[in-house]
C-alpha cells in the first residue's frame, strides 16, 4: 500500500505569507491602486447643504467615479456597515478596496454618533460615513471641504447670528 499525502494551499485574501510568517506586500494590489489613483479626480460638489451654506459631492457621484476608474485596474470596493445603537447610539462604516486576485486594503471603522434611534437618522449617518470613508481611502476630496473642522467641532460659523437668536435679541422683526 502506498502512502500518499495531499497538500492543500491555504488562501489568505488580505496577505500572502512567506516562510517566516510575516505578511508580504500586496504588490499586485498596490500596483493597480497606484495606476487607478493617478487617474482618479476629485468629485465635483454638486449638492447643496442649506444649513451650512456649503456644497458637497453626493455618495452616488463618488461611487460612480471610483467604480469607473478602479474597475479598469481589476479593483473593486465594498463597504461594511454596523452599529452599536443599544450600547452607545452610533453606527460605523468600513471601506475595502479589493483586487481581483483577493488582496485587499481595509480602512478603519468610521463611527458616527446618532442623536436618536430613528431609522432615517441612522440611514443619513450611514450615507455620510460611507461617503467620507470612501473618499478618505481613495485620497480624494470635494471642491469645498471643511478644512478647519468648524462643523465637526460644532463651532459657530462666523457671520450673522441664527435667525431665532436675532429675533430673541430684538434685532429682527417677528415672523
Could you outline the blueprint of secondary structure elements for this entry?
Layout: H1 27-39, E1 47-49, E2 54-56, H2 59-71, E3 75-83, H3 85-88, E4 90-99, E5 104-106, E6 110-113, H4 119-138, H5 163-168
Antiparallel strand pairs: 1-2, 3-4, 4-5, 4-6
Helix pairs in contact: 2-4
Key descriptive features of the protein:
175 residues, alpha+beta, four-stranded antiparallel β-sheet, two-stranded antiparallel ribbon, flat, disordered N terminus
Structure in words:
By secondary structure, the protein is an alpha+beta fold. Strands 3, 4, 5 and 6 form a 4-stranded antiparallel β-sheet that branches. 32% of the residues lie in helices and 18% in strands. It is flat, with a radius of gyration of 23 Å. The longest helix is centred in the C-terminal third of the chain and has 20 residues. It has 5 helices and 6 strands. The chain starts with 26 loop residues before the first helix and ends in a 7-residue tail after the last helix.
As a whole number of angstroms, the C-alpha radius of gyration is 23 Å
Amount of beta strand: 15-25%
Tally of individual helices? 5
Spell out the helices and strands N to C: HEEHEHEEEHH
Principal-axis shape:
flat
Low-confidence stretches: 3-18, 155-161
Alpha-carbon distance between the termini?
97 Å
Helical fraction: 25-40%
